[in-house]
Write a structure and sequence with these properties.
Family: Belongs to the short-chain dehydrogenases/reductases (SDR) family.
Radius of gyration: 18 Å
Protein name: L-rhamnose-1-dehydrogenase
Organism: Dactylellina haptotyla (strain CBS 200.50)
CATH superfamily: NAD(P)-binding Rossmann-like Domain
Keywords: NADP, Oxidoreductase, Rhamnose metabolism
Order of helices and strands: EHEHEHEHEHEHHE
Number of helices: 7
Number of strands: 7
CATH topology: Rossmann fold
Largest sheet: 7 strands, parallel
GO molecular function: oxidoreductase activity, acting on the CH-OH group of donors, NAD or NADP as acceptor; quinone binding
CATH class: Alpha Beta
Distance between the termini: 48 Å
């Protein structure tokens, strides 16, 4: 048996010379991921809805990133916006094509776009269920497929990360239309890891716990519910979007070069500490 030889990394910056694309990258978890990817040397294409709120959020993100760059650098060299509805199959094809046209390749893809509107199960309207399925599950499928096809064409492998949820593993009375979609993202990444391993493409899932974002701000205004949630978390606090960004960078980097089909709970110890 030959001895294992540690392969040196080409740059101390984890994601130097890497091109990333992410869906839902303007707010919450996605926004934090974009910042961390760029911080570690990647250039990033961001998909978001083409509406006033999302476009404004991207411009704010763009300004924040520009402020952190060296004076000699242009934000347009590291970040682009590709608006469109990710639940529509053609959006994913156009998104990946635009990213490659700008940056020349695709090394990292993060399927992050998602919605969660809490609703009681027995009165849940079909339209709300269909909306969640279309954005959370269909969008993840179409965009992952488009990214994988590009990576296969390049022939250099790649990393795909699906943002699932602790809700893929536990139930939620007001989330019967949401939890199945997050279980679907987890399952998609597992099966995609099997299908794409032959091309050197790694597929993994991140399962956030309760992260304070715009999706649950209204729900967590209930002080009693917020305190009960925090009491079940081993680390004693709600998560911040930046808590998810680090694990994504790890999975995107060569540090995780032998990690595929994995699921990483990023929940502060909530899953193992249910009381």
């Amino acid at each position: 048996m030959s001895a294992y030889t540690l392969q040196p990394y080409p740059d101390t910056t984890l994601l130097a010379n890497k091109v990333a694309a992410i869906t839902g990258g303007c707010t919450g978890i996605g926004r934090a991921i974009v910042k961390e990817l760029i911080h570690h040397g990647a250039v990033v294409a961001v998909n978001h809805l083409n509406d006033k709120v999302s476009n404004s959020a991207f411009e704010t993100l763009r300004s924040e990133i520009a402020a952190g760059l060296p004076a000699s650098s242009s934000v347009d060299d590291v970040l682009i916006s590709v608006p469109g509805d990710i639940s529509v199959p053609e959006t994913s094809t156009e998104f990946i094509a635009t990213a490659v046209a700008k940056f020349g390749q695709l090394d990292i893809f993060v399927s992050n776009a998602g919605i969660c509107d809490f609703h009681e199960f027995l009165t849940l309207p079909p339209s709300l269920y269909q909306k969640h399925r279309a954005v959370n599950m269909d969008g993840a499928y179409y965009s992952t497929q488009a990214a994988a096809n590009q990576m296969k064409t390049q022939g250099k492998g790649g990393s795909i990360v699906g943002i699932s949820s602790i809700s893929a593993l536990v139930g939620g009375a007001g989330q019967t239309h949401y939890t199945p979609t997050k279980a679907g993202v987890l399952s998609l990444m597992q099966s995609a890891a099997c299908a794409l391993g032959q091309y050197g493409i790694r597929c993994n899932s991140i399962l956030p716990g309760t992260i304070r974002t715009q999706l649950n701000d209204e729900d967590l205004k209930d002080v009693t519910k917020k305190e009960r949630t925090e009491s079940r978390i081993a680390l004693g606090r709600l998560g911040d979007p930046s808590d998810i960004a680090g694990p994504v960078v790890f999975l995107a980097s060569d540090l995780a070069r032998y990690v595929s089909g994995a699921q990483i709970l990023v929940d502060g110890g909530a899953f193992v500490n249910f009381q």
